[in-house]
Amino acid sequence: MDYLHLRDDEPVRWDEDLGVWLVTGFREVTELLRNPSLSAAWPEQGRSRLHTPADGEGGDGSRTSELVRKWFMFNDDPAHADARRIVAPLFSAERLAAARTFVEGLVDELLAPERDVLDVMDDLAVPLSSRVICHILGLPEDIAPRLAVWAPDIAALLVADYLPEVVTRGYRALHEVTAAVDEALRGEVPEDSGLWLLREAHRRGEIGLQDVWATASLLIYAGFETTSTFIGKAVRAALHAGAGPDVLKAEPAAVVEELLRFDTSVQQVARFAVAPVDVAGRRIAAGDLVLIMLGAANRDPDVFDGPDHLRPGRGIRRHLTFGFGAHYCLGAGLARLEAEVALRRLGERWDVIEEAAAPVTRSHYGLTVLEHLEVTGGTRHGA
Questions:
Q1: Any idea what DSSP says for residue 120?
Q2: Domains along the chain?
Q3: Which of 73, 168, 320, 352 has its CA at a distance of 20 to 30 angstroms from the CA of residue 327?
Q4: Can you give the pTM of this predicted structure?
């Protein structure tokens, strides 16, 4: 878990090294996520000191790529709401209910082979999340394996775009994503799929082609990266906390909510102050960059009793894993569905589950990536 040491400081503090505000308190994060004076369009102007060359020459001040800057998560209303509205039907309660059968069948398929050791990432989380988002968007299934190649380089572009090699790799990944989207759009696209909705909006003149690419690439990246990461981290956390198969299959929805709080997939989101903001006795000036630390806020001891302990029966009312306010994660319901089904089926597969080897992680431009989580299981003695 990253950033927990920040809780020892004030809930809102200025970081001299980065030249940004860090917000870690649950109440302060909630307040700022719905404050209209903080813009989600930080890639346009939100620069830390890492992004300011020593000679003071920094181009137009924009960060990452033009395509990513068009992602609706990095825009404010009305542009944000207009783009989000086009694909919102994909994540309605009715569509999620219909998707459950597909997700359950896919999880059963992935868990069907007899194995002494199951790699939660390679054998379950990665193929599950990649194939589900391709299904939702209407992309050919053979695109799914490529998502695991693209996602890390796009993720790095969002946090380390001050490094030339990150820009090169990230731009290449985005180019390949848009090429795959274009190829799919030239063929038969399933009606009411994500690409179908975007193509129809383009035909009606509501959005341009770049908007199609931007929204499709956002859904591909977010639908795969955050969900696959969460499933892996959730299983790891449950094992380390001793939450066995009985817990996973008994109350998967409650377990998922506590796991979402306990080890947040998206640790932070950024905002750019377009006007002064007063919070927790501090004044954020117009033009300041603000890092809102979701992971640390989800471990706020003033809100959660014993926050560093995983308690599957905690029954929490709300956490900040999917954000808050107008930018609340559009795909939250789908992520919950995939995680609930995966955890339940794992709980049903074995009476006992344990790690077969230590989890394998790697550092990727400041991001910690869970690459492998091998588990094994069996039957209780006397069963």
A1: I
A2: 4-378 (1.10.630.10)
A3: 168
A4: 0.91
